[in-house]
Specification:
Distance between the termini: 58 Å
Radius of gyration: 33 Å
Strand content: under 5%
Order of helices and strands: HHHHHH
Largest sheet: none
Number of domains: 2
Shape: elongated
């Protein structure tokens, strides 16, 4: 007898004893029941395998249709953006790629560090706050109604001074304060 099934026998016996009150027609000994349990488990395992194959076939059939729907949604979204906000696509259509020669075209950390370098007016690139101004101008167009971006992107001494105080960090971990513990008074009865 299988050790796992042998361990289950007491539980099966208890369950049968409880069920006999509801199902008095069950008149099977546990040794007669074990082959039926094994057979039921084998049938269940075979059915599960068939279900897995059926689901895999169904998913494989859906993938081309899903790919087509995603492609169509992308084309529709791009058409709407070209019509309503054509300036937003200019950075996406730029063919200049400075990271591929270094094998870093798909490195998120490298991209983040490059963006931080360009946005940092203190960096040696010599662009000053111009990149920050353009960044806030882009945010102002993408987030309508938020005038803080528009004010920061304007050519005014006040906005220039604010931008000179901006600190840009790449991949910075921000510590959060430890949660306060709540102590409740305990009453003695």
């Amino acid at each position: 007898m299988d050790a796992a099934l042998e361990q289950l026998l007491p539980q099966v016996g208890d369950a049968l004893a409880r069920d006999r009150t509801e199902l008095p027609h069950i008149d099977t000994s546990l040794s007669d029941l074990l082959p039926m349990v094994r057979d039921a488990l084998a049938r269940d395992e075979a059915a599960s395998g068939e279900d897995d194959e059926r689901i895999a076939t169904h998913v494989a059939d859906l993938i081309p249709r899903l790919r087509e729907r995603i492609k169509r949604a992308h084309t529709d979204a791009r058409s709407r953006i070209e019509r309503d906000q054509p300036w937003a696509l200019v950075p996406l259509d730029w063919n200049l790629d400075l990271l591929s020669p270094f094998g870093k075209a798909r490195s998120e950390v490298t991209h983040t560090q490059c963006l931080a370098y360009l946005l940092d007016h203190r960096a040696a690139h010599g662009l000053g706050i111009r990149v920050l101004k353009e960044f806030f101008a882009l945010l102002g167009r993408l987030v309508p109604g938020e005038d803080v971006f528009e004010r920061l992107s304007k050519e005014a001494e006040e906005s220039n001074e604010r931008l000179r105080h901006v600190h840009v960090y790449a991949e910075r971990c921000v510590e959060t304060p430890a949660p306060r513990q709540l102590f409740l008074p305990v009453r003695d009865n």
